[in-house]
Design brief:
two-stranded antiparallel ribbon; globular; alpha/beta; about 40% helix
């Protein structure tokens, strides 16, 4: 049960990942309930929370398929560098298949992360994201999360959240704008 895994922190409740999760492909029994474990676990806590934010690995496997079966909304982060594009078409296919078992599943939008500004590559990535959004019947978020030195330092050198390390940085402002955009989408949705 999910309720047994919850850790209460000053910033909110979490269920932290575990290194055992990396072996989920081999640990989860292959049967008709293989992709519904998370959905059933979350039912034990759904009356206590308005939102559950689930971060998944980029690989299309047992963990991601469990999330797609359990969630109402998906946000697809796309790195402007282009490296994250390799699996996006496979991911789009996985979403379409997941909708067969989860009629509530909606792609809320595509979020550009590690944005570098106005470059030719940025423009091409924007066009690709717009095409993907059209294929998935969704949109690209107007907010792009800019890459910044402050963000890199907070995560790799000081191991603190960006809002504590550089609360006035451009990247932090982007995250705030993004959260506002998501909340507006949910309230209108």
């Amino acid at each position: 049960m999910a309720v047994n895994c919850i850790q209460h922190t000053p910033k909110g409740d979490i269920i932290a990942s575990d290194k055992l999760l990396s072996d989920a492909e081999n640990m989860v029994k292959v049967d008709e309930r293989r992709f519904t474990h998370l959905k059933r676990s979350l039912k034990s806590v759904d009356k206590h929370y308005d939102f559950a934010i689930i971060d998944t690995p980029p690989a299309i496997g047992v963990a991601l398929k469990n999330v797609l079966a359990a969630t109402d909304y998906v946000i697809i982060p796309v790195e402007e560098s282009g490296w994250s594009l390799d699996g996006l078409m496979d991911f789009a296919e996985a979403i379409e298949l997941a909708r067969d078992n989860n009629e509530n599943l909606k792609v809320m939008g595509i979020l550009t992360v590690k944005a570098k500004g106005r470059t030719r590559k940025s423009k091409r990535m924007g066009e690709f994201a717009a095409n993907l959004a059209e294929k998935l019947d969704t949109k690209c978020f107007s907010t792009k999360i800019r890459e910044s030195i402050s963000c890199t330092e907070a995560l790799t050198e000081y191991y603190v959240p960006l809002n504590e390390y550089a609360p006035n940085s451009t990247t932090m402002q982007d995250y705030k704008n993004f959260v506002d955009e998501v909340l507006e989408e949910i309230s209108n949705g």
